[in-house]
Structure formats: C-alpha cells, structure tokens
Amino acid sequence: MDKKRDAAQDAALKKFDDDLFSECNDLKSGWPSDSTSYPAIVRIVSEDEGKAMGDENLFSKVKGYSERSDKQWETEDPDTVIPDLLKFWRRTNKSLTCNSALHTRDMILLGGVMSRLKAIVKKREKGKPKEEKKGWMGWTRQYMVDSALRTIEEYMRLSRIKKVEDYVQFGKARLIKISTATGEAIKKDDPNPIGDFLEKNGIKFDPEEDSETSLARMEIDVDTALAMRRLKNVEGIDKAKVRILVKSKISLNKDHVDALKNVQAANGDVNELLDKIYSNQGKLPSDKEKMLAPGHFNDRGQKLVEVIKMFKQDESLLPMVERKIVEELQKLLTELMAKLDQSDLSQ
Fold it and tell me: Are 48 and 186 members of one domain?
C-alpha cells in the first residue's frame, strides 16, 4: 500500500516538475529583476487618487487644499484644515507600513515556493552526467539576474522560519537580523523562534490579540535588543543609553563594538563612550579626544610604569629595548616634571 502511495506521489511530483519546467522554459523575457520600470511607476502613481491609502474623499480634499490660490488661503482659518491634514498624514503612514508588510509577506511566500523548487532541481539532477549538471545557481540564472537571486535567497531563508508570517510588519532587513540572532532556535525547529526572541528580551507582542502596541515602538524595542546582543561581550552597558542611540537612528557597528571592548579592557567607562557616540552623531571620538579624556594619561602612564618595572627586573629583556626611545621618554618626562613644578608653584 505504501509503495503504491509513494509511486502516486512520485508521479504527481514528476508532473508538477514537468509542468513547472515547461512554464519556466516558455518565459521569453526571463524572471523580473528587483526593480519596476520607471514608466510603470509613473502610470500607477498618476492613476491613484487615494485608493492606496483607502480614502479617496480625503485625498481629494487635501489635493484641493494644495491647489488653492494664495488669495483663497487668506480667507481660510488654518485651524479648520489641520484635522484633515493630520488624518491624511496618519492614513499615508499606515498605507506605507501596510504595503511594506504585504510586500514582505508576498516575498516570503515566493521564497517558500522557491525553496521547494530548489529541492526539485537538486532531485532532477541526481544521476545526470557531471557535464550536464547546472545546479541551483545555474538553473536560476536562466531566469533571473544575480541581484534578484540574492534577494530571493534571503526570502527563502526567512520562509523556513516557523510563524514568520506573524511578524512581516518588521520588514525583510529586521527579520534577517532577528533570524541571525535566533539561529540556534531555528535549527532546533523552534515552533515560534521570533516570538521567543521577543519574549526573551521583554518585548510583549501577541499578533492575535495585541491591537494597541505602536509599530514604531516595537521596532525600537527590537533594534535595541539586537544592539544589546551585539554588545553581549561588553560588561556594564546601560540599555537605556543604547535605546537612545537606536531612537536617534545611530547603528552600533563593528568599530563601535571594538572601541567599547578596548575601553572595557582599560577599565574605562563604556557608558561614557556611548554618550560621546551619541553627542558625535555616531562618530567615535578622535585620537586627540581620547587622549584628553579624564584618567587617560594616568591609566596609560600606570601601564607604562608596570612595563618599565618588568624590563628592569628581567635583564634578559633588555636587548628588546631601543635606547633612543628611552632617551626620548626621559627627555619628555623631565620637561613634563618641570611643567608640573611650575604649576605647583603658581597655585
């Protein structure tokens, strides 16, 4: 019985394969690239009169406001139009967010189908001579450019995540970051790895019940959690300061993380560096700023003292010392001592 069922499944799958390949081979212009033609966009925008935002009457009213002459505005009380403009603004933002979420959902759906095709392509090539094998990359390049393939591969990756469709509002880029952060959970076939990530980081969200949580706030919470994960090897980080950076659209990259690790290794204040990154709009302090930081000279000076003591106690290390550097150091320290003496006398 099982053999009959398997044979029937194989026959159905083969028919699906043949039909699919036939349709693909009939494509004359190839699969679409990631971009839409400029004329097509112009036509869609010119024909839309508020349908996309779901309120054609409101669109017409605001368009009417934009077409008024200066003379007409002179007799209009600005307070009377503000409610319409605020409603229009909210509608537009909602339309943008919903369209983005729908696009993510549809592309993940496409990614799931492409994952199925990938398995089919590999299965069809088993037993073929090596010179006839194209592989997945070779097969897809018949129908799409490499940039489109890279995009599809990202959505294929997302399609393998359980319940990912509940979180499409986060968009592709953020979902990929979350999937990286939850890699082990995905490998272990977690039934809801994204939901578990949110719960683990204290982010409350139930896609079936929650109707009040702001998407903007959710995105900040998620991005803060992702940033804290990047900083997991830096002790004493103030999460509130990281959240401020996230709200200000300042991303902590590898250079920031490395700088924070260096501060930690020098027993410095990592949160003070976060404040400087914020005040510098994401830029790290310059070398001069670092040297002028409180305690910098004393910290480095103490380390130099320890190094000198070590070389002084172990004569086998002396061949490693360049006399010229020691003489320069001695000269500068003598001059610095003179400056300190003068400063003490003037006080």
Answer: yes
Q: Which helix (H) or strand (E) holds 200?
A: helix 193-200
Whether 316 and 199 map to the same domain: the answer is no
- Report H helices in 234-322: 239-247, 254-265, 270-279, 287-292, 296-313
Residue 252 has pLDDT above 90, yes or no: yes
Give the model confidence (pLDDT) of 185-233 as tens digits.
Answer: 677 778 889 989 999 998 887 666 655 567 788 889 999 999 999 999 9
Which residues lie below 8 Å from residue 168, measured CB to CB, with a gap of 6+? 101, 102, 104, 105, 108, 175
202 phi/psi in degrees, rounded to 5: 70, 25
The answer to the question of residue 231 being in a domain is no
In a domain, 194, yes or no: yes
Higher pLDDT, 239 or 99: 239
| Residue 62 near residue 85 (C-beta atoms within 8 A) | yes
Q: Is residue 213 part of a domain?
A: no
Model pLDDT, residue 34: 46
Q: At what angle do helices 82-125 and 56-66 cross, to 10 degrees?
A: 120
Last residue of a domain, one of 188, 206, 224: 206
The pLDDT-based confidence of 58 (bands split at 50, 70, 90) is very high
Same domain, residue pair 136 and 14: yes
Per the structure, the complete domain to which residue 315 belongs is given by 295-346
Give the pLDDT score at 109.
92
Q: How many Å apart are CA 115 and CA 156, to the nearest integer?
A: 6
State the Cα–Cα distance between residues 156 and 114, nearest whole angstrom.
Answer: 7
Radius of gyration of the chain from its Cα atoms, rounded to whole angstroms: 31
Per residue in 133-182, pLDDT tens? 888 888 888 877 777 788 888 899 999 999 999 999 898 989 999 988 88
Structural domain count, the chain: 2
The answer to whether residue 270 sits within a structural domain is no
What is the distance between the alpha carbons of residues 51 and 70, in angstroms, rounded to a whole number? 29
Do 190 and 91 have their domain in common?
A: yes
Q: Environment class of residue 284 by beta-carbon count within 10 Å: exposed (0-12), middle (13-18) or buried (19+)?
A: middle
Residues 299 and 171 grouped into a single domain: no
Residues 59 and 200 in one domain: yes
Same domain as 163, residue 26: yes
